[in-house]
Here is the input.
Amino acid sequence: MLQPKLKSKVRCTDLDIGEVTKVVLDPLSHEISHIVVSMNGSGERQVAMGHVQTVTDDFVQLRAPSTDILALPPFKREDYVTTHEVEISHLEDNLHVTPGEVLVPLPDLEKNVKRRTFFMNFTHVLGFLVGLPIAYPILRFLMKPMYADFDNHWLNVGNVGKIKQDDVGVQFKYKKKVKEVYMPESEVDKNVWILRATPELLKKVYKDKDMEFRDARGKALWINKKTIPYVAFSGKCPHLGCAFKWRQHKTLGQVFLCPCHLSIYNAAGQVLDGPAPRGLDALPVRVSAAGDVEIIDMEFKAGTKSQIRII
Amino acid sequence: MDSKQSTPVAIPDHQPSAIEKLVAFLDERVGLKEMQAKMLNEPIPGGSRWAYVFGSILLFIFAMQALTGILLMFYYVPTADHAYASTQYIIHDVDYGWFLLGYHFWGSSAMVVCVVAHMSQVFLWGAYKKPRELLWLVGLALFGVVITFGFTGYLLPWDQRAFWATTVGVEILDKTPIIGDFIARFLKGGPTPGQMTLSRFFVLHVMILPASLMALAGLHLFLFRVAAPAGPFTGTVEEIKAKTDYFFPRQIWKDMVGMTFVFVGICALALWEPVVLLDEAAPDPGDYHPEPEWYFLFYFQLLRLKLFAGEFGQFLGAVALPVAFMILLVALPFIDKDPERNIFKRPIALISWIAIMVIIVLFTVASVINREFLD
Amino acid sequence: MAEERESMSPTKIGFGILWSACWTGIPIKAVFAVLAMTMGLVHFEGRFGLAVLMLFASPVTVFAAPIIIAVFETHFGEGIGLPLIFVMSIPVDIWALGLVGRTFFLERLRKEPPYDGLGFAIWWRAALIGTFFLPLLWWIVSRVTEIAISASHSMAEMDSMRHLFGTGLPIAERIGLELTIWGSISSAVLIVLAVIGISILGQIIRRMAEHSRPASENYQGLITRWDLMRVPGDQGLLLTSLAGVGVVLSLIFWAILPATTPNPHDCCKRPEVHVEPVFKPVESLNKNAQRIASLAAQVEAMEQHKAEAKGQKEKGKGKAEGGTAKDSSAKTKP
Here is the structure.
């Protein structure tokens, strides 16, 4: 783009007609569209850049004669605003029409580049060091309730007198007391499935190994002996946590059936059909001499193949 | 980031690094280099000074208060039945909760201290005079916001101290003629303090006041840039010119050191005196003698004088005096037209400032002494 | 300021160097103090403000503090952390005094700094002056305060006889009056003594300056010179080391910060509004008011200490602020 300088002389093919008093920009293309020439006092004229042949620092050469230029309509200043009175982004990025620069001296102290970089970097270091000490406390602060300790209390859920038949799932509903931090204690309804198992079923459940339960630190918590006939299953389906039922299936016989996504488990808790990733979760169970059934309530992550305890 | 000069350093065969390419990308679209230069390369006549750091420190303290405040909100519950228990939970159970709450608590004291320091610095340097009158007024509004922050936050733990200090404070506001009862009921959310009060104070403290402060602070910064730093009040032209440097890096660095020191100081206070709550708020103050935060103690003591007893006396002390003082502060740039900024040549200003500081200190100490006589 | 070079008063010299050096050192000393507090090596109880002031002025207090503690049985804090912090402050003060000293010589006195170990030279002189002068100042101000307090007590009694109120001056007015009387007396004495101490240091420094060559550059040159003195030769090394030290200290901080509140749960403690916080604003303000108010602070703290010196000994590590018998009844609750 040609950059005619303000105050440079304008020369037609025949004579000098004045100087460039103003430059007009096109707001869309951001290019110089016109120059305004003083015409030596006889009324400014707006000259399109098409008429401009060459541009140097001192003068602008037009390719038309002066009569043509004089014939142009006079320049109407009221149709224009300065670039400071309108917000057009990047308008003056490629504009170099001022002959020279307006400058301000650099303060003596700022002339040293090393000084600038030193204090800039020092500032960054300090800023980093202010944030660092509190980063870890903040993280621990926010994480406090996320990995709460497990509650390993024995809960009385009912009496074995309720169980009339072997190898049949019986739902025991009970209320669990819950205290969430400073909230008042409340009760939630929970359920657990207890079976009185025959030796064959016990073999399927335990596979000749006692079932060990450990706490968060790995210490042994309880062992379900493979000889005790009572088995307790968590009432939540390992697929996505729904409560399941004990039903008569068309072909598979008496099974645990989850109504949400139709996972089916046999009496031993093994998956027979459906999307469940693992079998039913067995819970620590003990039965007193009087027949009171106690369990330790645990909940496990739903939807995973391995058993990960969360409550 | 070193390119304050407009002409780029022309090193032949210099392959731009990834960062330089990114900067060039942003600069082309946003005018980053020019914007950065305009923001950072502000010459400070007479050079960067430690006396000027208080404004930036206040911004830093506000940022830290916002951060710790947000963290506290993860556990704090603003209801009358859970406010106390949740605060105790933060103090005793949540990891480092005591530290973050302590930081928030002492940070508010630090903010009041720095606000007074900042106002004093501006006053003593005469930087409220023309053309900085608007700056001063916005600053006074910010001062009001900071004081209100302290007042509203104090109630939130809902222990005896919080509850009764607020009750007394709102009662004082009630003494305002005509609109006093309305204001008091508005703040209390009813005739007496209760859940409604807590909710209102909470909204004020975490939403309305932060928004106001950010808006006013932005305006304050804008006005400051437009008016330019006032600089020192003594010194020949030669001296001032010799020491002049830019806002960046030297003043920013001083601000940073100041911020670091304040950060360490608040940590020290939080370690020295962790927040301990009294009993939960109850309708009967019992053995507890209500007291406001320490920065209100001087005023608390002032109101104990017999001069301010009786209905007219209460009006005088609770309303007329503070209002008159605030009006004086607001009118200050318009009354004091003398362009002289050297504090040692403004005896009235110097003496008034010293007198006010001495009175505040005196009455604060007096109120501490007075505690022994309360039983 | 250009004209005062030769005739600068010793007080101005002493104060100019001491004020800047103390402020230069305090951020670093504060970091040590916080670490010591986090580790539980030091507990400040009620004397926190006084301890902060002593640490702030450590060039003069470093040896005076143990003397004052021993002779006057004041306690700024409990625990080995306190002497540790003061010991750590010695290299910090030497460095700060060196930096500030060189700057002061160049800018204000227009002289070349006399020798390389300027920091140490000023430091040991300041510490020496402090060792002798500060305990003396402490003793004088304590005595004056005691006398002034009892004088103001009797003045208030007398006044109340003549007063309109038959029962005597009301409490608040009486406290205010007494405080004003003994407060101004004590503050005045404290200020005068402090100024004397500072001017002694100033005279010593002025003598150092008399033996120094005048600096050759013009004003701009001098300013540029001391300004660039702050830019290290090897920036990378300094900054990396600083960052490294900071990271190490942060890691230590994380390891030692107690996760749950270090205070026993005391549900009914009175609000701990100490004298100390009052004087926080003072530290950042104009030096005149700073002096007045900080001295009032020291005086008040001393007065309180005097009032309960016996009780404090008996209580051992108990809370020490404003703790008279009456006050403690309001503090405790079943």
Observations:
- Chain C touches chain B through 65 residues (CB under 8 Å).
- Chain C has a mean pLDDT of 78.
- The radius of gyration of chain C is 23 Å.
- DSSP finds 13 helices and no strands in chain C.
